[in-house]
Request: fold
Amino acid sequence: MIFASKEFFVFLMVVLLAYHLLRSRTHKYGFLLAASWLFYAWCSPQYLWVIILCTVIDYAAGLAIEATEDERLRKRWLLASILANLGLLFAFKYTAFAYDNALSLARLLNPDVHERAWEILLPLGISFHTFQGISYTVDVYRRQIKAVRSFLDYALFVSFFPQLAAGPIVRAVEFLPQMVTPPRVTSKQIADGLHFFLLGMFKKLFIADQLDALFVSPVFGNPGAFDPAAHRWAMLAWAAQIYCDFSGYSDMAIGCAKWFGFELPRNFNFPFLATSITDFWRRWHLSLSTWLRDYVYFPLGGSKGGPVRTYANLLLVFLFCGLWHGATWAWFVYGLYNGALMGLHRAYDRALTGRAWADAVRRSVIWKGVAWIATMLQIVAGLILIRMADWRSGAMLFESLVAFDAWPTWSPRIPIWVPMLMALVLLGHLFSGLRNRLCGLLELPSGVRAAVYVFSTAMLIVFAPGVGKSFIYIAF
Amino acid sequence: MNFKTLSLPRFAPRLRPRRAIAATAYLQRNRTVALFLVGLITLDLSVGLFHDLWQRHSPDDYAWRVQACQERRPDLVLVGGSPVAEGLNPSVVAGTDSDRHGFNLGMSGGTTSDFYHAVIHACPAPPRVLVYGITASDLNDSRGEPHGPHSLMTWNDLAGWVRTRPEASEWVVRHFLRGKLERISNLFHYRYSIRLWAAIKVNDAFPGGSPLTLKEAEEQRDYAAGLVSGNGYSPLKGFEHAHFSEFKKIGAKGTRFDHLHYLHNYRTGSHLKYLTKLIDWCEANRVTLILLDMPVTADLERMYAKEFAEFRLRLGEVERERGLRVLRPTRAELRLEDEQFADLIHMNRDGANRLSTWLASKLEWSPR
Reply:
């Protein structure tokens, strides 16, 4: 049951209705937890125990950490929680990858070693809820938050179904205070929930899925059959697709949560307006970026241990980030690539900042334009790694990207819808992002907003594919 | 003094404005959502006003054929699945008598259960002859065609199905209700037609911008035009001029040229109950029913030998039990080669002409 499916609408309607009809706090939260577990079991029936086990361990660890002042004991409980979460994550996500690599090594000694004949299905949202659990116990350990007394509250924080499958990775400090009393849904939340839910659906079904079916899949599946101009458009379309797919999910999650009276953190901030790779990671998947900063980069020492240590930390954090997304060498290289770019950008920034002439140049519009183009090239080149069918096709696409002889050009094999859909993404960035707004539409008069929602709904009904594709980040 | 009567005019005016103010305030607070709902309903109703336009771009061919057959009251009705829709031309089958009219009630993808419902609704005035071009896939209980419950059945038919085929009752209730729900919204109901209409309009503005969608849109528009203008016979261009022999040379693997999934997991018995009901209906209405075992390619019969054997066994049983006339033309008799087929099961124009002419020669028309 994915968000953009008919089953989910029915499920959401029933849960919303029942939740608002119930009166007491316990009944409301108990029902919402049951619904969230049902949602989980619907998608990953064999793995319901995984989320329950993680919940029990982290809940118990939180209480145990708070109950003692003995630092060694506190650290042990923290380690137990981290190891349990990472252990489960590793077991499900990385076992096959590790096994395959061990096989490749073994094959150097004995070429007759058999291929792996088994597969491990990934439990729903395991990369997200394990990180949520870790952040909770670490925050309790750091005495930044109090441990949650009620198991029901903690379990609902971990399993709240709108953000269960693909984030945002919600921190306890952001969510638990909202749970003290069941939040009353305001009129603004109803309208804004509609806004974000429709916006997310529109991004996912109207833009991402259409770009994929019309152009991205055919070109990435067989780049040899297309010319370099088509490759370039397909790479840009892929960037638009993955953004709309993932931010679409986040928007739908934010919208759904509003209808229950909860606020989830923003996960994207117009990433394609970034003028440097550092800026990009401050705008893309914010809940993961900040999680990695707070729970990996800072504990590693951050930028306090001298330049070499800082660059090594950056590289490590992005390697971790790459592997968090997927257990493949392509994701490893993606992490390495971004870590290296971050390091390079940091070095360049340090070298120029404070020099009057450099600051003046960097403030100019022309320089910002150049920086934007350079950043987009870096982003798109990185995204090739995670979509290419194999390394050879990846190299072919990369070659087209950096062949500046005729960039950008048109190809008759590009369906007219592709630039139209990409223009919508650009329009969204310009309309809201440039004015530094959450979404410019929210500030328009009610009548205009309603008209836009009616138009979007009509577009979704008419043009969305009959069967929605799964969200890309659900696989992570 | 009557205090009750006095109190009414004092309190009533106070209560009404308070409620009205509360309602206005509520609407004011939720005006975005309220306007959205009003806008959506208005748009939906507006879409409904153009239903003729949408139907011209992608007709509900099941419903349309039933309605057209009701209006034309033909002497001869040809019913069956897509092999009938593509392979039997009623003008040829009805013969040279200009007073005799035939109608093709072929329903692509349908099953015997669907054909029964199509016939009873399409023929309020029973025809003189009903030819059911039957083939193995019509009787496969592993399959059902959602279009049937969507477009052919009434609430009574649904109840009848649940009684007749209880093992498929969950399926039919689900699809029947889904069909009814889809009709609540014009926008949803006509979404496919609007999409194809838009493809043609976009192509007018940007020629060649979306060739695949345009091709589909034009095919559907031509199909709709063919259905509207005649006797239900509107072969798809893709079938009319295709040659199975050529596709075999190319060796199209994993397509409709090397398998027919309608025959997978083959089992019979449940749809067969509706064949019995169709025979009963014909007897009750004095309609001459002829079953025509539709010719298919030699490849298909070879690939699904077991399935065709079971189908023909069942056909033989019905023939014996009910004393029906079953026509079994052979490929040799009709001189049908791969050249006369569009794919494994559908005939092209040449094949359709041969079969239609042959069938016309087998029909005996008693005086009215």
